[in-house]
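Why run this: before we spend reagent on co-expression, it is cheaper to look at a predicted model of the complex and decide which construct boundaries make sense. The entries below are exactly what would go into the expression plan.
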Amino acid sequence: MLLEHKNAVIYGGGGLVGGAVARAFAREGARVHLAGRTLAKLDRVAADIRAAGGTAEVAEVDALDEQAVNRFVDDVAARAGSVDISFNVISSRDVQGTPLVELSVGDFLQPITTVLRSHFLTGRAAARHMIGQGSGVILAFGGSGGGTVVPNLGGFQVALEALEAFRRQLACEVGPRGVRVVTLQTGGVAETIPEGYEGREELVASLVEPTLLKRTATLEDVGNVAAFVASDKARTMTATGVNITCGAIVD
Ligand SMILES: NC(=O)c1ccc[n+]([C@@H]2O[C@H](COP(=O)([O-])OP(=O)(O)OC[C@H]3O[C@@H](n4cnc5c(N)ncnc54)[C@H](OP(=O)(O)O)[C@@H]3O)[C@@H](O)[C@H]2O)c1
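The model came back. Tokens follow.
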């Protein structure tokens, strides 16, 4: 197994991407610590993991609350002995579908402040422990979009680009202390668009069309890559995005 003896904290662990990655980490032997604002969502993922023989704990944590994030990570480190992996995949509260010229400043800034505040808080809390350990991996989900520009995304893509700048800066500062920082560069996961969502077919087609493989990553694919990147097998990888876009972005 790839992640035996590792403790992983996952913010948004009750969500679609967070839950899939948590299941993959647990399957690879990690002890997962799921954080989110709604315990019922976290409990469902934790129950699946335990039923499959894994180890999962849950905690009610708002990833935008500085004290709550610090308390959570300190508590995991104290009880479990280490914080080896930190993955933040909370919702970004983005407002899409409105042209920028018609968007309010509040709606524009909402995803930018959400993404940057939560990644700063969760990355900083994890890095403080990882530096002490001399090892650890901080993962993000998003990516630069590969320079492709799509209209009416509001502040969403701007937030993801800013996250990439933060990832580079953090990687540069913590690398010499043994800590890696990597983004999983997604082109969108079609599976996460709910059945019955208005315009689902067109939306899925718009995600699949630019790929070279004529499909998008599945949630299982995301979990598999995340588990590898978080493992010591990927110990050469830091300050980079891992392209899981099925060729939608050509590097
Ligand atoms: N799905 C995709 O294809 C895709 C592509 C690019 C980027 N992303 C980004 O990936 C993220 C997750 O996507 P998803 O499809 O997994 O969404 P999701 O199913 O809605 O999961 C998001 C989770 O984040 C939790 N959350 C929200 N605010 C939080 C906070 N302040 N503190 C702690 N937890 C919080 C939510 O639970 P509570 O509300 O109970 O806390 C929820 O369980 C989003 O930011 C999305 O923009 C997704």
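The longest strand covers residues 136-142. The first helix runs from residue 16 to 27. Bring this page to Monday's planning discussion.
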